[in-house]
Amino acid sequence: xxxxxxxxxxxxxxxxxxxxxxxxxxxxxxxxxxxxxxxxxxxxxxxxxxxxxxxxxxxxxxxxxxxxxxxxxxxxxxxxxxxxxxxxxxxxxxxxxxxxxxxxxxxxxxxxxxxxxxxxxxxxxxxxxxxxxxxxxxxxxxxxxxxxxxxxxxxxxxxxxxxxxxxxxxxxxxxxxxxxxxxxxxxxxxxxxxxxxxxxxxxxxxxxxxxxxxxxxxxxxxxxxxxxxxxxxxxxxxxxxxxxxxxxxxxxxxxxxxxxxxxxxxxxxxxxxxxxxxxxxxxxxxxxxxxxxxxxxxxxxxxxxxxxxxxxxxxxxxxxxxxxxxxxxxxxxxxxxxxxx
Length: 341
Fold this sequence. Notes:
The protein is mainly β. It contains one helix and 19 strands.
């Protein structure tokens, strides 16, 4: 959707020195009612006395006056101008609106607390937080990974963010667009390994990334190197398509037996869906194809997210035609737990 600028007016005893560029997270919602909508998309907010200062880049929500609708849009404060009479105007850039809703008189602009659970802030693709803020709960962030058994998304960690799993995989955000990682237990036994993922492009609905995966095979002279390409595309207000292709540059004997691990010496193609539930849990489902084995597999997974903790259970297959319980050629279950800071 085209970006819309909304100009809002409110009452406050704030001063210019209180306006800074870092977005805070407050523990209250501030009522600011839309009192007038002009032809140039100006909104007048009536008689609001803010209890705390307002910030440039602070994320606010648009809430319908109809109780059964709730939040229908989100945006950020872009510019604040004081008029000198105790009132101020602020320019509000809409990041997303539900397609069937428009701003109406009597609707409200409210502050959000996204550091923990917010019952009013229901899971929607347009409500995902893309602007880096370490205080934002992980449930509101785009997924960095779909889990060890499923594979990567196109998203990168924010700068200085950490993600680590219960089995010793750790990732770090060098920059907002560049993340690196390694599996520590393998390094401990002399098997050097590492991954790097770089975001190449982002638009309103699409993210494109590429990366490398390297592993020195334990007790062997062989190593693997895969080139990975990831594409995330928002399909609608509740689902995202994740496309992933991994190409093996060099491999090792019997790499086909390890096809359950993406990017470990075999080439594969995967396209699946991430469904965002109202409570921000995720349902992941999709097929994959392994070029070496010439087999079709797939996955079905449920991911529960808290502020930092992620717990995931998945049913996976490396070959849907093989009715065996086997991660090499059949079906297997996988449990994952990881934390994002």
